[in-house]
């Protein structure tokens, strides 16, 4: 009856080998830039359900701030913003996917923290969106600062960093609060709307977008302070300096484009006819910056032309004309009162 | 007592003009109002239903919005089905290239045709078996491409496509492995028996979600750098291995139900082990276990929704993405109701079908 084990072995082996044969994607060790160019597609890890950052539109297109960052990297590296394969990652498997080489860039509203940068086989590029944990409360309380919320009841979802941040904030100030813990976010916000709790805390961007969905948005105020810093941005696999530079500087180029008033519409004019050397260097008519990254000199031109500058991306995805209606806030340029400070391209 | 006999008597004398009406009254009396307490319960339920059904129908259908482009078109008080209707292609085909959608349709058709094929008695069983063996490979080829068809990256797979693909291909691959495991567990060779028992018990004692997390998080780390197996395939293998273990137990049950006379007769005729199994035992076992296997398929079909936790966008993943798209925020109820309806229709049909097959078998046994 050795036949059984033989057949079984054969079966297992053939199932496995067929599988591996089909899905094996051999990648050379030459560095991610070469890999991406050979493959002619950028594999980008995103989330599938974060409104404004990465989500699906009705006709199945990916859309959002994080998605547009991937597209601009694809435009810079491959000359074509559409050459991106979006891989859905979850909060749990995102860093494994990056470390194992399943994706080239992780652009999934991931906060830049020391422990992540140090531990997870990933390197952070640059902040792409500054978020912070905020607090929303009922407008009729007349409260204007979190400091006034001593003794308040907070709606929280269990086991999140926002719980820790709240504890830190209140503990430090010797203030008291109590909590109502609700697992599902829809129910959490419904409970808050019905007055089950006095305040609710989450990322400010998340609070703002939820408020627009409330029956009476004006009955609630978003307090101005942030109780935690949440710089969100893209991660790349650890140890590939060239690739990290490319993703970082693609993001910078879009911020610089806003600063220099280069938009997807006027980029051609600006390229052909500019007196500003900064614009000329950005768009590759001077200085051969792209070449030094191992890219085409028109790398930033392609990204701006096909995806738009930072302002265009922001407005298209989360700006005032979208249902999310975020304030630019911290994400204004450094010379307009924000902290978006992109290093110069020269 | 006297009243009752009198009534029966009078019934017999003058048969009612509307027999169905009479039957209905009797049924209602017997089923709904046998005792005062039950009458009370029945009445309360009826009142609740009468209050709830018009309300529900109104919300679901009459005041609901089916046509429109955006949330602004949902003006009535009813449900807003636009996130589903506007996105139906995304729900069904995911990101599959538009020009290649015919391949998905054919694959769906092939998968659906299993049911009538199982049912038809005129078709030779060897053909059915052959079909079941070829089908997963055929579906794989149709959907993934290669060999004449353009290749489609599995990042383009999403929605119902993924659910059906994982369910059907998972089931059909799991069946042969399950049969081998069941035979192995009853084998007289201790090594084979031990291995089969170990495998089955190990897999059965771990929740499928743990295995999925392992496939998503751990397997990659054991491979040499740069080598990756598509997450889709990893998830499929996990589902196959998981289902195979459960199936082995179902089939083992079927094997135990075969009387020992069958084995003895085969031995007396000088049949080898494989001939005995292949020609005599397994055909009976499989025929008897089709209904429980179908039930298992229903289980697997619903379990495929767990893949959403490892980042594979099945129909639930698309639904979750829909409820968080800014243009459809706040319409969770409609989207999840649609999901419930989708799973209900398929699972109810299948379980009904399984019950039907069971009845057929009872009949043919008599």
- Outline type of chain B: globular
Order of helix and strand elements from N to C terminus of chain A? HHEEEHEHEHEEHEHEHEEHHHHHH
The CATH topology label of the largest domain in chain B is: MetI-like fold
User: Quaternary state, please?
Assistant: heterodimer
Low-confidence stretches of chain A: 18-29
Number of strands of chain A: 11
Beta strand count of chain B:
0
Choose one word for the global shape of chain A: globular
Structural class of chain A: alpha/beta
Largest two-chain interface = A-B, 53 and 62 residues
InterPro entries (chain A): Bact_solute-bind_prot3, Solute-binding_3/MltF_N
Family (chain A): Belongs to the bacterial solute-binding protein 3 family.
Pfam family, one (chain A): SBP_bac_3
Keywords (chain A): Signal, Transport
What do you see in this structure?
The complex is a heterodimer of chains A (346) and B (366). By secondary structure, chain A is of the alpha/beta class. Chain A has two domains: 32-131 and 232-331, Periplasmic binding protein-like II (D-Maltodextrin-Binding Protein, domain 2, 3-Layer(aba) Sandwich); 132-229, D-Maltodextrin-Binding Protein, domain 2 (3-Layer(aba) Sandwich), CATH 3.40.190.10. Chain A contains 14 helices and eleven strands. In chain A, strands 1, 4, 5, 6, 7, 8, 9, 10 and 11 form a nine-stranded mixed β-sheet that branches. In chain A, strands 2-3 form a two-stranded antiparallel ribbon. In chain A, strand 7 (152-156), helix 6 and strand 8 (177-181) form a beta-alpha-beta unit. In chain A, helix 3 (65-78) crosses helix 9 and helix 3 runs antiparallel to helix 13 (299-307). The longest helix of chain A has 22 residues, at 2-23. The termini of chain A are far apart. Chain B is mainly α. Chain B has two domains: 36-65; 82-365, Orthogonal Bundle (MetI-like fold), CATH 1.10.3720. Chain B is built from 16 helices and no strands. Residues 1-5 of chain B have low confidence and may be disordered. At the A-B interface, helix 1, strand 2, strand 4, helix 4 and helix 8 of A face helix 9, helix 10, helix 11, helix 12 and helix 15 of B. Chain A: InterPro entries: Bact_solute-bind_prot3, Solute-binding_3/MltF_N. Chain A: One of its GO terms (biological process) is amino acid transport. Chain A: Belongs to the bacterial solute-binding protein 3 family.
């Amino acid at each position: 009856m050795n036949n059984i084990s033989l057949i079984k072995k054969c079966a297992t082996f053939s199932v496995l080998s067929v599988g591996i044969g089909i899905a094996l994607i051999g990648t050379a060790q030459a560095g991610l830039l070469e890999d991406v160019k050979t493959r002619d597609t950028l594999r980008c890890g995103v989330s599938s359900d974060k409104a404004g950052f990465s989500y699906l539109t009705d006709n199945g297109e990916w859309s959002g701030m994080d998605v547009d960052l991937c597209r601009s990297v694809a435009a810079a590296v491959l000359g074509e913003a559409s050459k991106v394969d979006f891989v859905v990652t979850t909060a749990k498997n995102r860093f494994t996917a990056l470390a194992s080489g399943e994706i080239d860039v992780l652009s999934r509203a991931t906060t830049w923290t020391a422990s992540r940068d140090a531990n997870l086989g990933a390197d952070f590029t640059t902040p792409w969106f500054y978020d912070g944990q905020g607090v929303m409360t009922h407008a009729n309380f007349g409260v204007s600062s979190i400091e006034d919320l001593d003794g308040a009841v907070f709606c929280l979802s269990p086991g999140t960093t926002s719980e820790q941040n709240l504890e830190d904030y209140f503990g430090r100030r010797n203030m008291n609060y109590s909590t109502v813990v609700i697992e599902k976010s829809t129910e959490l916000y419904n409970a808050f709307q019905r007055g089950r709790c006095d305040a609710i805390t989450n990322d400010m961007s998340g609070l703002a977008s939820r408020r627009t969905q409330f029956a009476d948005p004006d009955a609630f105020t978003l307090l101005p302070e942030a109780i935690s810093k949440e710089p969100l941005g893209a991660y790349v696999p650890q140890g590939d300096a060239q690739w990290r530079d490319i993703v970082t500087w693609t993001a910078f180029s879009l911020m610089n484009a806003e600063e220099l008033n280069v938009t997807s519409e006027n980029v051609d004019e600006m390229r052909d006819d500019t007196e500003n050397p900064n614009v000329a260097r950005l768009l590759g008519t001077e200085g051969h910056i792209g070449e030094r990254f191992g890219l085409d000199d028109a790398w930033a031109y392609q990204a701006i032309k096909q995806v738009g500058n930072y302002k265009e991306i922001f407005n298209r995805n989360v700006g005032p004309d979208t249902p999310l209606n975020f304030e630019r806030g911290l994400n204004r340029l450094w010379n307009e009162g924000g902290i978006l400070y992109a290093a110069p391209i020269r | 007592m006297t009243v009752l006999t009198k009534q029966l008597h009078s019934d017999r004398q003058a048969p009612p003009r509307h027999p169905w009406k009479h039957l209905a009254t009797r049924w209602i009396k017997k089923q709904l109002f046998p005792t005062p307490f039950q009458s009370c319960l029945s009445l309360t339920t009826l009142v609740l239903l009468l209050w709830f059904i018009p309300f529900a129908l109104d919300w679901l259908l009459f005041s609901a919005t089916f046509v429109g482009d955006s949330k602004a078109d949902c003006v009535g008080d009813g449900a807003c089905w636009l996130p589903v209707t506007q996105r139906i292609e995304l729900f069904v085909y995911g990101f599959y290239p538009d020009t290649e959608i015919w391949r998905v349709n054919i694959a769906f058709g092939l998968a659906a045709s299993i049911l009538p094929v199982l049912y038809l008695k005129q078709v030779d069983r060897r053909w059915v078996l052959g079909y079941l063996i070829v089908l997963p490979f055929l579906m794989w080829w149709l959907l993934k491409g290669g060999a004449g068809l353009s290749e489609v990256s599995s990042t383009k797979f999403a929605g119902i496509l993924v659910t059906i693909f994982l369910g059907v291909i998972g089931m059909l691959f799991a069946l042969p492995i399950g049969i081998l495991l069941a035979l192995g567990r009853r084998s007289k060779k201790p090594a084979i028996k031990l291995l089969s028992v170990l495998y089955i018990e190990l897999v059965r004692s771990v929740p499928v979600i743990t295995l999925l997390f392992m496939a998503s998080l751990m397997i990659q780390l054991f491979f040499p750098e740069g080598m990756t197996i598509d997450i889709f395939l990893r998830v499929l293998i996990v589902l196959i291995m998981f289902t195979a273990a459960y199936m082995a137990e179902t089939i083992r049950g079927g094997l135990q139900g075969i009387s020992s006379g069958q084995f003895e007769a085969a031995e007396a005729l000088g049949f080898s082990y494989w001939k005995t199994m292949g020609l005599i035992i397994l055909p009976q076992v499989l025929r008897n276990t089709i209904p429980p296997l179908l039930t298992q398929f229903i289980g697997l079909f619903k379990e495929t929704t767990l893949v959403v936790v490892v980042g594979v966008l099945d129909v639930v993943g698309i639904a979750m993405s829909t409820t968080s798209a800014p243009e459809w925020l706040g319409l969770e109820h409609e989207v999840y109701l649609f999901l419930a309806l989708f799973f209900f229709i398929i699972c109810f049909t299948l379980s009904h079908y399984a019950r039907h097959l069971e009845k057929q078998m009872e009949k043919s046994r008599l």
